[in-house]
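User: My instructor asked us to take a sequence, write out its structure as tokens, and then describe one feature of it. I'm not sure where to start. Here is the sequence I was given:
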Amino acid sequence: MSTWPLRLGEPGRGRAVGLAAGLALALLLVATPIGLVAAVDPSRVVLAVVVALVVAVCALRVDVALLLLVAATPLEAAVSISANPLITVTKVTGALCFASFAIYAVISHRKLRFDRTHVIVFLILALALLSTLQAREFEPALSTTVRYASFVALYVVVSQLIGDYTLQRRLAWVLSISSAIAGVIAMRAFLDEASYQATLPYGDPNDLAFTLATTLPLTIWLMRERWILRPVVAALIGVIALSILLTYSRGALVGLAAATLFLLATERRRVQIVLVGGLVTLVATMAFLQTNAERVEEGIQAKSKVASYNVETRLEAWDAAVELASERPFLGVGPGNFRAHYGEVAGIPPGAEALGVVHNAYLDVAAELGIPALVLFLAYLVQVFIRMTLARRWENGLPGFASAVRLSFVVAIFSAMTLSEQYYAPFWLLGALGTALWAEGKVGGERPLTPLLVRGPRLGDAGEGTPPQPGAADDTDYDLDMRERLVEQRERRVAAQVRALREEQQILDSRSEELAAREAEVVRKELEASGGPARRGWALRELERLVAERAGEHPDRVAEWRRLLGYLRTAADSDGFLPAAYNAFVREAFGDLVEGDGR
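Assistant: Let's start with the prediction itself. The structure tokens for your sequence are:
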């Protein structure tokens, strides 16, 4: 992907001015941290230079900034960059990504696209800010709100990737690789007996399992890659699936089970996806058990000892969340403040450890942000799910990508029933991808957009609406394969539209014939009621002559007239004349053909 455009005014002069501005910004971003760090600790200058270069590259390449944010999401709990909870990897990369995109949008004059889901996301953020102001413990409330703000930035940026198939594919790769690395780190902690569950050093195993479980369908989707890459994808699937199992997170497993049933119920032709994922998971599990069976058994026993206690505490937490939501229905107790109120509501003695979260994302939102925020959150989920379904129906995006995104979203929705994951990236990243895919099929109404080969503006294109140039750098073997698949996909769509039009025409023809028969029957009954014909009316041969002579003037009526003539033959006498009672019907049915006749 080429760098994003730096255009101000005329193309040539604008690019030069934009490049100069970008380089000046990059130098400023590089020089500032170097000077600060060198003054305090010269030994860290090298690290500062590396960080500054990363910042500079991200400032010039919004796609790199976005991929960096996505990569940081699964690894957030693997590193700690500051003791201050306001400074985490996700928050820093989120701020960097949004700043990069803001600079890009201003310089390139890109028209940003916002819709009702963006309004919902920002309204939730507004409620979180208001709730923070009245929270009992301000620091965790502010930290949680800033964390959510970083995901708002993620949603805004990713939802603009309309038609950018290359970057969407890279997102799937980066997220899968990062999740696999997080899984390896978590399994290492499990094997080193640092924990009886696979977990990251600064995180909770349930949070890790949720992120990995929502990534797994996208990783399985990557099995569509070239044959040379499929062993790599299979390894990623094995590591991610095995890591999920070793977290012993029942919430994640419930989400995966629900997604599997959903897939089998809605897309049976994709059952091979389940088989591939299951087979790779089985092989990875069996291989791991061959060398670590004892450690796995210890983990299972440790988990079983606290299983019943976990169920009891979660039920108590749910009751407490309902009570807190009823006491403060409008703004809740404040983001991240459930822990501060749980002890009082649940009757836990002072000094005893209190639950930090509700272990139910929906009740957690209601308790911490209030009922209006819960309604908005549910509206967001419903709206995004509908959009994903429409994108899949319209076959938007790369083949099968919309289906994989929707499946990951199903995992998130069901896992959130026993896990508090509303402040984690999957909900917002997947929702943004679903919105971007849906937007490909929106022009005025809910109708398919232009052919898929005519891609929309990309973050890396030379300008808004610029079509991809054949023979460009992206014209690799993989891209040719993708283009071929997209052409086949378009051909199937056109064939389906042709079939639908034919079926619709058949229905219209059938209704027309039925209506003509009813009209003829009405005329016959009127004739019988009047006591029979008093004199002759139109001759059928005359009507047939008029239809034949003037067919060219009324091509859209010819078929209908010929069908009517067939019905009228049953009412004509032996000489081919219609009863006079049919004259009014003939004038009405044959219109201009008989205009001016006195009958």
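For the description part of your assignment, you could build on this observation: The mean pLDDT is 80. Try explaining in your own words what that tells you about the chain.
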